[in-house]
Amino acid sequence: MQLIQQSPGITAYLAADEAIDHEHPRVREVAADLAHEADDAYTYARAAFTYVRDTVPHSADSGDPRVTWRASDVLATRNGICYAKSIALTALLRAHGIPAGLCYQRLAGDGANPVVHGLVALRLPGHDRWARVDPRGNKPGIDARFSLEEERLAWTVREHLGEVDYPAVYAAPPPEVLNALRNARDRTELRQTLPTHL
């Protein structure tokens, strides 16, 4: 699938905003720690992906009721759903000068309640296209990996069930995603207000 930049200029995918707050001291601290062990942009990006995937539990897996939406809060509390974890990874990538954005899949969920799942797209130096990665977090039946050549996402879209890979790469979280995160008092409430399509 060819990914399409929602914003024409690449600088939009390096910018900080209220959610992707990569200038925040907490984000900078984590980025500096990851950069210390990285020889190049690829090594850093892989380390940032692994850090978010493995050290920030998905709140549906951990049972944590808190809802986070700023990258700095996700990294400070080590908690978030897929949208929040994607925001955190995007911030860590941008903190190191790697263009990154947010992208999404529409999944069937339990059949009655489709869900929109958050991913990250990144563009490393020397690569002429965006690559998607999924920092959701692995568990039995889910084995997402960092790969620029062949996607290794948590889920593969099943078109016969009406699932969709959205091609847009967003520079900032879409309003329906951000509003759901910002307005939910806890994860139970969030589950009722998550978008079902973009």
From TrEMBL:
InterPro entries: Papain-like_cys_pep_sf (IPR038765), Transglutaminase-like (IPR002931). It comes from Streptomyces globisporus. This is Transglutaminase-like domain-containing protein. It holds the Pfam family Transglut_core. Transmembrane segments: none annotated. It comes from the Bacteria. Residues 29-135 form the Transglutaminase-like domain.
